[in-house]
Each structure stands twice: as structure tokens, then as C-alpha cells.
Amino acid sequence: MGFEKAVDYAKKLNDQQPVWGRGHTRVMASVLAGEYALFLGPNFGAVKRIQAKDPTGAIGYKIPEPIPVRLHEANGVLANAENPYAGLLWLEFQASPEGQKIMDDHWPVGASVFAPGSAQEQVTSGKKLSIIDWNHYTKLDDYLQKIVEAMGFPKASVK
Question: Is 155 among the domain residues?
Fold first, then answer.
């Protein structure tokens, strides 16, 4: 999507005077109760959890393109770990098809969007992705600060 387009999107979103909430649990409950018609930005797994508990089938989802994808597992093995190869084996297992299936089943839908056959890969297959990769991962705080500014949130100040 690109940073400039994301900032422009944030400004346009702010122009619509949205109702803001923190976290997905409370806001999703409000959507389920009919207090709000939609919720922009919950994690896919949060939506799937609510859907699994929703006997009415009222909760749906639409994933806009390009689909925003971010790295969320920054796991590694410390250089001075007592058993570094055990750590590497654990990471390899997590990346394996079996490990990814366990993440899909128990997270839920926590397997990587890049894991063949995962729930996220099935939803995104053939669609354009907007990826926040390792090159941008360390810049996220700066990006978020600029997007929050574009949305018009007041800045905290000490008097």
C-alpha cells in the first residue's frame, strides 16, 4: 500500500468521525449486540473466535485489498542460550506444516499467511497483500506516530 497511501487513508477515515475503542473484545461485543454496524481493524483470529461463539451468525467479515499483513512473531534464539540447538529445533517445528496446523487449530487461525493450507493463506490466496516486512518492522513506531497524527488524535502534554 505504501506509507503515503496509509496516511491518506487515515485522514479520510478521520473525516468520517468514527467511534474509537481500544482492543477488539469490547468492540466486537458491541457489534454483536447491534450497537455498531461495523468494526475496522480487528485481528482475523479475533473475528473467527467471535464467529465460533455466535449462534446467530450475525458476525461477518470483509478483508479489503490490498490485505494488510504484518510480522507478529519475532522469535529467535539468544546467542548465549544454554541449549541453542534445542531452540532452533523448536523454531523449525513451529515453521513446519505440523507446527503451523497446531497454531491454526489452537491459536485459532494463528498459522502464517505464508504457510500453505493455513486458514490465513486460504483467505488471502490470489489476492494482493500489503506486507509490513522486516525492512519496515523497526520503523513501526514512527509509522504509527504519523498515522495517529493524521487521524487527529490529541497529543498528551504535561502542564
Answer: no
